[in-house]
Design a protein that fits this description.
- Strands 1, 2, 3, 4, 5, 6, 7 and 8 form an eight-stranded mixed beta sheet that branches.
- Helix content is about 45%, strand content about 25%.
- The chain contains twelve helices and eight strands.
- It has helices spanning about 5-20, 20-25, 25-30, 35-40, 60-65, 80-90, 130-140, 155-170, 180-190, 205-210, 215-230, 230-235; strands spanning about 50, 70-75, 95-100, 115-120, 140-150, 175-180, 190-205, 250-260.
- It has one domain: Vaccinia Virus protein VP39 (Rossmann fold, 3-Layer(aba) Sandwich).
- By secondary structure, the protein is α/β, with parallel strands linked by helices.
- Helix 5 links the parallel strand 1 (about 50) and strand 2 (about 70-75).
- The radius of gyration is 18 Å and the shape is globular.
- The structure holds S-adenosylmethionine.
- S-adenosylmethionine (SAM) binds near residues 29, 54, 57, 119 and 121.
Length: about 270
Amino acid sequence: MTDQSKKQKELSQQRFSRVADSYVTSQTHAKGEDLKFLLEMADPQPNWYMLDVATGGGHTALLFASHVNRVVATDISVNMLQSAEKFIRSKDIKNVTFEKAAADQLPFRDQRFDLVTCRIAVHHFPSCRDFINEAFRVLNPAGRLLIQDHVLPDSKADGTFIDDFERLRDPSHNRAFDCKEWQSMFTAAGFDVIETRQVTKRHELNAWADRQGCSADVKNELLDRLKNGSPQVKGWMKPEGLDHDNPSFINHHLLILGQKKGSPGKD
Ligand SMILES: C[S@@+](CC[C@H](N)C(=O)[O-])C[C@H]1O[C@@H](n2cnc3c(N)ncnc32)[C@H](O)[C@@H]1O
């Protein structure tokens, strides 16, 4: 592991361990049409063994638990795992187990799982490619990988602005990718891309910044950046209420489903 990769993981662990419970209560994570889309795309089966990587508050593990045989929920932060476990147990769900793991070093044998999911987390990982390769390794020959994460516009300059904006709010934001990059990472790892969908999520700037414990100075700087973004960036982030009490903006998510190339029984 490089020093850079180690630092990135330590930063994520620190940041998320401080604010674990806020990711259980976050409406951005607990709600949204994206949850319905994930189920439709994965088409989970009752005999499936599933791995949810970077489970955070546990919303994806909870969503799938009643549709599959067993879910293993992993995260790099033990505090996050404890919050997710408390939340999922409170729903009387018994087929989810919890295990600490970094996304690029999954402590599971080859071909163990039918489905790997990872929702709104890859932008924190030191290497998305290393995670996708690990997911490929732990999936069985017909296995499916379903990722939801931020997606950037095609313009590199606008993408850099958005990554910097996200990093100001949460320094453990490493980087996001555009659609083409997502597709090529799946293909390079050995997956066929079966389906993609996109959703947007509107965030109230103050609640979004508070979830990561931002200071008043950081919140002001975020607001200034939204006000001063280029017309292209504003067209993408669609800010509203910038001169009122409750400014907001949207981010875009890609949902991407891959299946191992040459999978038995694949159309
Ligand atoms: C926004 S939360 C995930 C939300 C969750 N998947 C859901 O559906 O509600 C991001 C999570 O990624 C985890 N994380 C960040 N870097 C990681 C890494 N390298 N390996 C595993 N987990 C990581 C954090 O600890 C945090 O719990």
